[in-house]
Write a structure and sequence with these properties.
The protein is of the alpha+beta class. It has a single domain (about 1-210), classed as Exo-inulinase, domain 1 (Jelly Rolls). It has three helices and 15 strands. Strands 1, 2, 3, 4, 6, 11, 12, 13 and 15 form a nine-stranded antiparallel beta sheet that branches. About 30% of the residues are buried.
Length: about 210
């Protein structure tokens, strides 16, 4: 009986995962090098942070504790797109609960944006409004990244799904939410550095989605 229950649980998990990843199987974006001219990354060098190209990657550093830094680029997406998928590829020197790294989406300016951040074993989705942060959702994750992260955001209607790894393992979901700004990017805090190596995105219009379904 226990073996039968275990088998049914495995089959149910496989079916659920497959259903969840249907859009990714069809529309997963190709990853472009971060130096691709289609991207216009913010580069800077000041007392708090610096961001510059080095060895075919974009290095983003936060130079002070109790500070954060972002670099972003504007994509050709808007709120009327039926589905869009964005994949982020980067490497971190260190990841722990005091030195979080992550992705940025819905970026308006340095004081107004959304971010998915990773600590050593915990992730959090944080909203910044006028420079004040508010935790939207948090949870645990287990992934042997060895400092290398591949994160995917899929927006379909008012639902956002997040995945980690090249196999698109489901991380978490936000419902009844909006993304108003087409700029996305990367996040560091508290004397942390990341090397940004790739970004890819794909947009599907409503008539294309309907034809496929």
């Amino acid at each position: 009986m226990n073996k039968i229950c275990l088998l049914l649980s495995c089959l149910l998990f496989t079916f659920t995962l497959s259903a969840q990843d249907k859009d990714l199987e069809r529309y997963a974006p190709d990853i472009k090098e971060i130096t691709d001219p289609d991207f216009e990354w913010g580069q800077f060098d000041n007392k708090v942070a610096e961001c510059k190209f080095k060895n075919n990657a974009l290095e983003l550093k936060c130079l002070k504790n109790n500070e954060y830094a972002c670099t972003c680029t504007e994509l050709e997406i808007d709120a009327n797109d039926a589905i869009y998928i964005i994949s982020f590829q980067f490497e971190a020197d260190k990841i722990d609960d005091s030195h979080c790294v992550g992705i940025v989406y819905d970026y308006e300016n340095i004081k107004n944006f959304q971010t998915l951040r990773f600590g050593k074993k915990q992730f959090s989705i944080v909203s910044y409004k006028d420079g004040e942060e508010a935790v939207v959702k948090e949870g645990l994750y287990k992934l042997d990244t060895k400092g290398k992260l591949f994160v995917t955001l899929k927006k379909r209607g008012r639902k956002i799904d997040f995945y980690v790894g090249n196999q698109y393992l489901p991380l978490t979901t936000l419902k009844n939410c909006e993304i108003r700004n087409p700029s996305v990017g990367f996040f560091v805090e508290n004397e942390t550095k990341i090397r940004i190596t790739g970004l890819g995105y794909r947009v599907m219009l409503q008539n294309e989605v309907e034809e496929k379904e």
